[in-house]
Amino acid sequence: MIRLAVRVDRADAELVLAELLELAPSGVEERQLSETTVEYAVYGASGELPALPDLQAAAGGSLVEIVTETVADDWDQRWKAFHKPITLDAGGRRMRVRPPWEEANDDASLLDLVIDPGQAFGTGAHATTRLCLELLLGVDPDGGCIDLGCGSGVLAIAAAKLGWAPVAGFDHEAESVEATLGNAAANSVAVSAERFDLRGGGPVPSAELVLANLLRPILLDLCDAGFGGPPPRLLILSGLLTGEADEVATRFVEAHGLTEIERRSSGEWSALLLGPGL
Length: 278
Known about the structure:
It contains 8 helices and 14 strands. It has 278 residues and is of the alpha/beta class. The chain has 2 domains: 2-79, Alpha-Beta Plaits (2-Layer Sandwich); 83-276, 3-Layer(aba) Sandwich (Rossmann fold), CATH 3.40.50.150. It is globular. It starts with a strand and ends with a strand.
């Protein structure tokens, strides 16, 4: 079995991922190698992997390097070992997010979320997702919620479990829409999902609460595009390096009349909770 990894500039990672999923629709593995580099990897026999020229074209000017290595044939089981349950405690609420191969916890005080990451998504363990979930746990449900860039659906499903309704996820990838709908069904919650061009689709959908765990360039594009309805009452933004948080907060505050309510950080990452202007 061969592992073929494409390393790209972090700033363009979301766009490169969209191109790579066209070549590897069964999914890719994602790793954050540094503040500036993201690695996407696919597995298979040599004849089953995308051709190098296709990968180079998909990565475009964001390409850092392409690396290949031989891995054990049981990689699919080893991959599962990377996804462990996480437990969060914020705002007087507790939540446990786990993949389906991990058993449920008997603790009745824990809100249980089951998220199948597939092989292109995560279960919530990344710091950017954890920070979003912590901020979400700290606000009281009151109205509808939209998750922009829904991925596996973990944020949208968490919102639905907490009592937000209606809840909808939007993503530019068909695989994300399918993953969100599948995980919502597994958790017995009502979450809709559909495709939306996060960088060129015009004004973005709005609701009482909008969640956006995306990279800085896409968040700024969303800020400039504006909302298709009234600005959200609450806005949770993540996917930001700590040095990017001030800029993004300022842009949303100035453009949409919001104010920063809370900021959480973990390592090199930060997330923002914005709310009604003063």
